[in-house]
Amino acid sequence: MAKLTKRAVDALKAPKQGQAFLWDSELRGFGARIIPSGLKTFILQYRNADDRSRRIALGRFGAITVEQARDLAKIKLGLLAHGKDPAAEVEVHKAITVAALCDWYLQEAAAGRIIGRRNRPIKASTLAMDKSRIETHVKPLLGKRLVRSLKVVDIEGMQADIVAGKTAKPRSTKRGGATTGGPGVASRAVSTLQSILGHAARLDKIATHPCQGARRLAGKKKQRRLNILEIGKLGDAMRHAERNGENPIALAIVRFLLLTGFRISEAQGMRRAWVRPEGGYIDFADTKSGAQIRAIGPAAMQVLQNQPIRKESPYVFPSDISEGHYTAAKACLERLCASVGIEDVTPHTLRHTFGSVAGDLGFSELTIRALLGHAAQSVTQGYVHIDEALKLAVSRTCDKIALLLDGAKKAGRAEGLAA
Prior knowledge:
The chain is of the alpha+beta class. The protein folds into 3 domains: 6-84, Integrase, DNA-binding domain (Double Stranded RNA Binding Domain, 2-Layer Sandwich); 95-202, DNA polymerase, domain 1 (Orthogonal Bundle), CATH 1.10.150; 228-414, Orthogonal Bundle (hpI Integrase, Chain A), CATH 1.10.443.10. It has helices at 6-10, 66-81, 86-94, 98-110, 124-142, 152-163, 183-202, 228-243, 248-260, 264-268, 298-305, 329-340, 347-360, 365-371, 377-385, 388-405, 409-414; strands at residues 20-23, 30-34, 40-47, 53-60, 275-276, 281-284, 292-295. Strands 1-2-3-4 form a 4-stranded antiparallel sheet. Strands 5-6-7 form a 3-stranded antiparallel sheet. Strand 3 and strand 4 (53-60) form a beta hairpin. The protein is elongated.
């Protein structure tokens, strides 16, 4: 008997019947088990406080490494030293429902104990979306199921049910749109559940991830952009709405989105302390891609500088009804588009329009990615501080859209934009 290693477990041969074991020479009770099918599992065998022999699975070989399994075995033996029976803990985990596991995940994530992208705690905005998908789709369809009983077919079945509209809800009287189905919504719900199961398996909340390999539907890529005439119509709608009492903050956000290509969350949640008028950029403390510096054009900066300052609020676009930031720009955009017959427009359409106009003006894909905040932070910062080409691209794109919004359609056609 020698120390358990990857090479030794790789060499372990499957028996014709029953099961075979390979034990570690350094950590008593820690070993690997193989069954006739060839499945290899790390195990821990011990005697509890009642002197009963117990054996628990630590994880499947390949899903976790030998050293990870060894660490798990040490944790279990630590529980044993404190009078707890690791097998009893496993039995509790086996009885956990999907709803209970989701609640655990939300609590752990809110406390900063779930590590997400870039090895950082999951963001509040991401957690809010996860919670919405859990409450709207996951719990109604799978909440009562035991996690240990889940199979791939159950996950893909949930996906099909969401697409079919089984969790759809009508628009409520409060703010917010209707809950609908569709491949994109279904795929994101599956992704959230798989992420929860993955975190639970990694943190030993459940023995193994029960649904690895479930296939997610491909969402429909958003290609919609406003053409020259539609940008002009939107400008007309904004001027008409301004004369007829539309909220000026909402109008300012819609204009700013089109002039910058910012995400709606970035615009609505922008703080005055991040705005750098002298440099022509926004110094974001955080975005979907992390902390980031984003250049904007003069016309977009003018929108920000025209906003009245509310001393008690740190936001450029403060809420009228709370201490937070404004949140209803999307509804304003819908009203504007409906008033002039422009269909199928979302805040992302404005973002895609900005990138498309930059492409029409001849700027490269790498430059456009930097304009939209897709590039790595270091690349974006380098552009803003060193490369004047990015500033030129931002200014020209912003100016072109401003001209179109303000009715200069001839100038737009002269630049060769395609409708």
